[in-house]
Amino acid sequence: MQKIRKGDTVVVTTGKDKGKRGTVLRVLDSGKLLVEGVNRVKKHQRPNPVKGQTGGIVDKEMPLAIANVALLNPATGKGDRVGFKFLEAQGGAPARKVRFFKSNGEVVDV
């Protein structure tokens, strides 16, 4: 289980986009992730008629290291550290592993 997943809202903690917020589009195996609207670069793209791509300068998001973002805590409106804990089982179901915010102990996954 990962501390930051696809669809989470995160805050960038370091780098040129420090303080920006965005939604995680994709988590890569290399310990990086793509965040919507963050770490945008201009890529000079060559046309490829086989794929139907036109040439030109394209804006695209580049991956960020997971260590450079923090999960947004809706209660405080700031980035927060995340931990794991097990919730008690109810009605014979096994205990569930969930994420929680370190600052106030609130559960992220419901």
Gist of the model:
The chain is mainly beta and 110 residues long. The chain has strands at 9-12, 21-27, 32-35, 40-45, 56-61, 64-65, 69-73, 78-80, 82-87, 96-101. It has one domain (9-101): SH3 type barrels (Roll).
Write the layout of secondary structure elements.
Layout: E1 9-12, E2 21-27, E3 32-35, E4 40-45, E5 56-61, E6 64-65, E7 69-73, E8 78-80, E9 82-87, E10 96-101
Antiparallel strand pairs: 1-2, 1-7, 2-3, 3-6, 4-5, 7-8, 9-10
Number of discrete helical segments: 0
- Rg, rounded, reads 18 Å
In what range is the share of β-strand residues? Answer: 35-45%
Order of helices and strands: EEEEEEEEEE
CATH fold-level assignment: SH3 type barrels
Q: How many domains make up the coordinates?
A: 1
The first-level CATH class is given as Mainly Beta
Beta-strand segment tally: 10
Gross morphology is elongated
Biggest β-sheet: strands ordered side by side in the sheet: 6-3-2-1-7-8
Overview of the structural elements:
It is a single chain. By secondary structure, the protein is an all-beta fold. The protein has one domain (9-101): Roll (SH3 type barrels), CATH 2.30.30.30. Helices cover 0% and strands 45% of the residues. The protein is built from no helices and ten strands. It has strands spanning 9-12, 21-27, 32-35, 40-45, 56-61, 64-65, 69-73, 78-80, 82-87, 96-101. The strands form three sheets. It has a six-stranded antiparallel sheet with strand order 6-3-2-1-7-8, with no helix packed on it. Strand 7 (69-73) and strand 8 form a beta hairpin. 12% of the residues are buried. The mean pLDDT is 92.
